[in-house]
Amino acid sequence: MGLFILRRLGVMILTSICLTFIVFFMTNLYPNLEKLAKTQGNFRMSDAEVTSFLGRNGYLDPLPVKYAQWLGVLPGWTVEVSDGMRGRCVTGTVTPEAMAEAPRFCGILQGNWGYSTVFRGDVGEIISTRLGLTAKLMFWVMVLMVPSALLLGVLAGMREGSRTDRTLSTFAITTTATPEYVSGVILIAVFASSAVGLRWFNGTATGAMDNATFNNFFLPVLTIALYGMGYIARMTRASMAEVMTAQYIRTARLKGVKFSDIVMKHALRNALIAPFTVIMLQFPWLLNGVVIVETLFNYKGFGWTLVQAAGNNDIELLLGVSVVSVIVVLVTQLISDIGYVYLNPRISVS
Fold first, then answer.
1. E strands within the chain?
2. Apex CA 286: angle with CA 131 and CA 124, to 5°?
3. Is residue 328 within 8 Å of 287, Cβ to Cβ?
4. Total H helices, total E strands in the chain
5. Which carries the bigger pLDDT value, residue 350 or residue 20?
6. Contact 318, 254 (CB under 8 A)
7. Residue 25: its pLDDT value, please?
8. 54-61: long-range contacts (C-beta < 8 A, 24 or more apart)?
9. Per-residue pLDDT tens for 88-101?
10. pLDDT averaged over the chain?
11. Which of 67, 82, 123, 139 has the fewest other C-beta atoms within 10 Å?
12. Span 103-113, average pLDDT
């Protein structure tokens, strides 16, 4: 197991480098850099002024060099200007003496995530704050979604082909086929709009950022949970139906074992092997899939930050968001593989 984890960690590092380099390449295309220069200066800047701005901020170096500096494996860029020196590892314009005392390496590996041109702050602090808000949303979504989906799937798979199975399967397919922007609008119209009259919940979740209550937080949680619930329930139902037809289940029935004991002690663990992988894959989906819901309910979490960074061409913030997304996806996949091995002893890590 230890060697398996080490190999996977090596693959994860290579994958992270490849994915972040692709994002870095796309965000550092010249049209994006030109737009950034005009956003920070003015939209009437000439080509020469754009080139001067990009040169003063280290954007004209070769792409591999810029990527290595961003990672922190090469010394940060330094540029001489009329009133001093500028560099990646310092803020603003400094004297040559201050530049000599500044650290040479200042990339992601050293904890320097860059400066956000939209929020006017450190990218690392912004991402940690917004990620905490999304983590709170993800926690309550998982609390509602996973038990409900497993219960629906087990109940449907226990008696395949019954009326209960057909009813629950129809509900699961309906929730999966309904996008969040549709179900969210419907829930707002029904429970938060004065047009219908049922003003039970707030239509916005901005207040939940500081003080989450049932009134201001339930609708976004329910919107996300409904969409993911159907997929997990269908996977659990299919796995449970397959297990219930296994030979050892038939033997237990012939021995007179109670049906509830058959389900809880024999069938349930084997039926949860496939849903476990699906549940673990919900974490990266929730991290980046909440973009629509957070924007719809004005909940300023990780997904909302991604929209703001992309819409305002905030290159450093986009790169920081991509790093976090890649790490979450790879770590959850590793945990999923390890958990799958423990749940299913027939699977060998070799």
1. 78-81, 84-87, 115-116, 121-122
2. 20
3. yes
4. 17, 4
5. 20
6. no
7. 93
8. 55/79, 56/81, 56/86, 57/86, 58/86, 58/87, 58/88, 59/28, 59/33
9. 888 878 888 888 88
10. 84
11. 82
12. 89
- Provide the pLDDT for residue 249: 80
Fold assignment, 124-343: MetI-like fold (1.10.3720)
Query: How far is Cα 37 from Cα 57, in angstroms, rounded to an integer?
Result: 10
Which residues, in sequence order, are CB contacts of 163 under 8 Å at separation 6+?
none
Query: Can you give the pLDDT at residue 344?
Result: 64
How is residue 170 written in tokens? 């129809």
Furthest C-alpha separation in the chain: 90
Q: How many Cβ atoms sit within 10 Å of the Cβ of residue 68?
A: 15
Structure tokens at 191: 């429970």
Rounded Cα–Cα distance for residues 275 and 123 (Å): 36
Q: Is the pLDDT of residue 288 over 70?
A: no
The domain ranges of the chain are 29-112, 124-343
85: which strand partners?
A: 80, 94
